[in-house]
Amino acid sequence: MLRRVSVLALALALAACGDDSDDPIPPERMAIEILRGDNFRDTVYLGGPARAMGAVVYEPVAVGELEVSPEPLVAKFGERLIQPSSSLTGPSFATLPPNTTADWVVVDHEGNEILDGRCGRPVNTTTIPASDGTTTNYWQRPRKAGTCYMRLQGVVNGVPYVDTVFTRVFLAGPPVVPAGWITFGGGRVCAPDLTLDGMEMRVHGFIDANGNPTEQYRVEGVGTWIETVSTEFGTFESRHVRVVGTPALGDTATVRVYDALGNLVADMLATLIEGPCTDMRKTPPVSYNVPGLRLEARPLM
After folding, report:
1. Which three-class secondary structure string do you get for 142-165?
2. What is the mean pLDDT of residues 256-283?
3. What would the pLDDT profile of 163-215 be if each residue is shown by its tens digit?
4. 13 has a pLDDT exceeding 60
5. Cα separation, 290 vs 279, whole angstroms
6. CA neighbours within 13 Å on the CB side: how many for 97?
7. Average per-residue pLDDT in the chain?
8. Where are the alpha helices (DSSP H) in the chain?
9. Residue 191: how many CB atoms within 10 A of its CB?
10. Beta strands of the chain (E only): which ranges?
C-alpha cells in the first residue's frame, strides 16, 4: 500500500541520508519549531490576598502550582533545511552549537519586552535544550486579562540567532459581587415606544477579583415578569434575562448570577426603570428613554 509522507519528514530523511556528520549546526542556520503551548486559553491568577475592587494589579506572584499555567511551552531547536525551491521545511535534529541556550521573555505585540508583570512571566528566563533539541518552560499567570506573547530566542555564546513567539489568551475570572454592588441591564435597541413584553436585557457590569471586566458568568431571572433566556454558560444569550408581560416601572424581581461551576455568586434585586439612550445613527443623534433594570446585590446567605 502506498503511504503519504509529509514534506518535513521527507526533507529530514533526505538530509539524514546525505549527511552523516555530527558537526554542530552553524548558529545562523538554527531554527525553532513550536511543539506545544501556542494559542492556549487560560484564566488569570486569582489567588493571593484580597485586592481593592476595581484595581487591576500587575505585581508578580510567587511561582507555585496554582500560579503557573498548566499548559507547558515546548519547542524544538534544529537546523533550517533549505530545499532547491528555497522553501523553509523546518528544523532537522542535528547537534546544536556549543553553549546554546533558550532565552524566554514576555513581549508586547510589537516585540518590546514587558517587565511590569501585566502579562505574567516565564518560570525560567533561560533553559538548556535537551540532546534532542527540545526545551520546555511554563508561563506564570498574570492578574490582568488579555492576549499575551512569550518570545523564545536561540542564543549561542550570548548572541541571539533565531526566535519564535508563543501566544496565550488569559481570560478574566468569575465575578466578585459584594453586597450592595449596583449594576444595570438594558435592551439591544435604542428607539422610542419599545414593546416591553419579550424584551431581552443584557446584565453586565461585573469584574473579577483583580478588577478585570468579566463575562465569565450566566444569569437567571426569577419572578412573575422576568425569566431566564439561556442556561448555556459562555453564550451571549446566557447573560440576558427576558421580560414577560407588561410590568410597571418600579416593579421588582430577582436576578441570580452563577459562575462556570454553577456556584451562585450574586443574588440581585432587579427593579424595572427607565433610562436614557442615544441613537448615534441619526444626524444629529437622538436620545430616548427606554426600559432597563437596576440591579443591587443582596447579601448571600
Report:
1. CCCCEEEEEEEEEEECCEEEEEEE
2. 95
3. 999 999 999 999 999 999 999 999 989 999 999 999 999 999 999 999 999 99
4. no
5. 11
6. 21
7. 86
8. 7-18
9. 11
10. 30-36, 40-43, 73-82, 88-91, 100-107, 121-122, 126-127, 134-137, 139-140, 146-156, 159-171, 182-186, 200-204, 218-222, 226-228, 240-243, 252-258, 264-279, 286-298
